[in-house]
Amino acid sequence: xxxxxxxxxxxxxxxxxxxxxxxxxxxxxxxxxxxxxxxxxxxxxxxxxxxxxxxxxxxxxxxxxxxxxxxxxxxxxxxxxxxxxxxxxxxxxxxxxxxxxxxxxxxxxxxxxxxxxxxxxxxxxxxxxxxxxxxxxxxxxxxxxxxxxxxxxxxxxxxxxxxxxxxxxxxxxxxxxxxxxxxxxxxxxxxxxxxxxxxxxxxxxxxxxxxxxxxxxxxxxxxxxxxxxxxxxxxxxxxxxxxxxxxxxxxxxxxxxxxxxxxxxxxxxxxxxxxxxxxxxxxxxxxxxxxxxxxxxxxxxxxxxxxxxxxxxxxxxxxxxxxxxxxxxxxxxxxxxxxxxxxxxxxxxxxxxxxxxxxxxxxxxxxxxxxxxxxxxxxxxxx
Length: 383
What we know:
Elements: H1 13-25, E1 28-29, E2 35-36, E3 45-50, E4 53-58, E5 69-73, E6 78-82, E7 85-92, E8 114-116, E9 119-123, H2 144-147, H3 157-171, E10 175-179, H4 190-204, E11 208-211, H5 220-227, E12 231-233, H6 241-247, H7 249-254, H8 256-270, E13 275-281, H9 287-300, E14 302-308, H10 325-342, H11 353-356, H12 362-372
Parallel strand pairs: 1-5, 9-10, 10-11, 11-12, 12-13, 13-14
Antiparallel strand pairs: 2-3, 3-4, 3-7, 5-6, 6-7, 8-9
Helix pairs in contact: 3-4, 4-5, 9-10, 10-12
């Protein structure tokens, strides 16, 4: 079993535990670090390499003030300390060089796309049909960055292509992740995202993942694949139907079975392992239902990207807290062995969040199990 698909260092279980705790407790910083604020996905994201591993951790939410972890500059480099004891080396993301450039019409590149460690990311349509309505996803902050003037409402394909080329040449990005707010149109915004992906691919050659709501016409998946997408994310967020109805009413109308139907078609188009879904923990979900949903997705060839809730300041869930590290670890330890046993591997994903893995610690256990060839763990027998 080849787990050498990228050049990342081997991750130890001890480091995995530190990262799991950091993503639940947050990291106090004594000096500012590059962050992602607002946006459609995991936000309040301080971007750091920990022992050479790309990781995002909460740095700005109120609860972070009580974290036992602090990032400190040392004589040479940086370190992460827990209650005064050094637990890992760190290398905060420095300001990307392409951020200093602007388009010919004066739009700063950083308002078009952001560097997420080794990945370029952009929300091509920064507005959502559900924003400000009863259907708004409670964890989402897609329009907050627009309201704060940190981005523009619509990124044009030629703008994204220009930025992608610069990010590749100046900052070494390896892939592009595109997402979009849902539109009122029948494709939910996917066709425009596909146009943007095509422009990026032609200009830079970088692999691209597109993230969008399942379109009622699943033939749209063929269109966006032909346009240039390498991977696709359609995010159910929670396999617990009661939680989904509470936190994402519009997604609940599609229904969990509706997502499985869309994933089935997407796997036919993009291939096993190139379709993913976010699975957010910490919203009151039933752990057993969650694990069963993840396994059902894996059996289909879908990668369930399990992440802790990261409350976005300014969102409807800003007062919530991420789940406890033990709760995250318990689900990781049931899902990761199933991923390994079924051969749905993060290191085979061509582009996107499931390739990057910085917002989760599941791939640490996944790689540890794969390297040990322990695909027969007892957890597989309790399905």
